[in-house]
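Shipment paperwork, digital attachment
Item: protein structure file
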Amino acid sequence: MKLEKKIVEIGNLSHSIRSWMEGGNARRLGLITSIDGGQLSTLVLDPQKGAVEYWESALTADSYRALTLMVPQAHWHERVLWDMFGITPEGHPRMKHVLLHDVYPPDFFPLRKVPFFDSKGFSKDRGFKFLEVRGEGVYEIPVGPIHAGVIEPGHFRFSCFGETILNLELKLGYVHRGVEKRLTELPWQKARFLVEAAASDTAAANALAHAVALESIMGIEPTATAQHFRTLALEMERLAMHIIDLAGMGTDTGFLGFAQNMSRLRGKALGLAHNLSGSRFLRAFIMPGGVRKVDTGILAKIKKNARELKAELKPLIEFLYESQIARERMEIASVSRSLANEFGMVGIVARACGIDYDCRQSFPHGTYPSFAPPVTVGLKGDIYSRAQVRTGEIFSSLDVIDAVLENIPDGPTMVSVPDQLPADTYGVGIVEAFRGELIHFVATGADGKIVRYNINDPSHNNWTAVSIAIRDNLIADFPLCNKSLALSYSGNDL
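Attachment content:
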């Protein structure tokens, strides 16, 4: 949707955000960033009304009083502001670099375009200071960034007493690639290819959020046919990823037969995507203006294969939940609803805590909210609840795929798009990716070129959950806990 700028004084920003969040049941903070380093740019969301507001707060210095003190969800955003723009949130309770640490020069702030007001924005030290837990018998276990499995790099620092984890700190940023900066340098017509690569397991969702944001700026509306195909792509991606994440949880609970069969069925889910788009990972399919042309002759085969996949999944998933051993193994590592609310958690993590929030019911993308399925929620916020929510979404995605295939209208899959973006405009695309709320925020300058492109991956909201969930649990439980959250390193380390 296209956004109108509202001016909010920097001194009133934390109170304004807090008042906004308290002014409605589901209201929330979307993101905090900056356009060029001379201001704070804030998106606040009202999911019940499907509304978004854009607030801009001018800075007169390179520092301001930290918003985190009143709005805990802001803590990760403010650390990124410090990294990328040299803007210091004074009084931030856990100020550390998220993306640019160790080897980067102390005066390197890659997204800042305006001169510094003074030199206080400079970090004197890029070193990452881990919280030290002291006491007799307490010891540390460093893990990563290189891991034994084929996973992305990230460092975990465990403080333990015996086998019990007292504290876990994360150090990310190892796959920072400068994606957001590069998106302001590419011709906007080519940007969709980079957007899809921001997190390769979320290619369809990122492409859709990108398309929605640019379409809102350009004032164009894709055809109903294209919207139906976009929904199919989004749900196929969700289906495949939930299946493989459940497979991973099966591996970490010792249910290897379940895990291997779920991995096999993930291949069938990817086959649906290939039949639709020509790409198992749905690359180069969704674009501003619509989608690539689809061979409608293949739709009957997709419907048949999806129904067969559903029939194969049912007994396999029932087998997992019928096991008392598996259930007891997963009734650990919980996140409370109150902490999930405070830290703005989204997706599987939030819904497992009983938070009824799904962007498909609130913000237009594809055929949503019209085709939005019921929201699956848990109660305990533990690994078992996360597995239940994931399972519910597997079957609701299959139901959506079936319903969309029954209702695809005839028509073109693309509308024409202008050669140039309008000047001085702001747009946002909000999509329910398989991990949760995904936001793409785009701002153009006086010449119509993109001057700021910000991607807020769901993992950005949820990495805090890893530290909260594993506290007071056993070291041996961490792999299962981590897999139940299934967060993205590259999606965070843009």
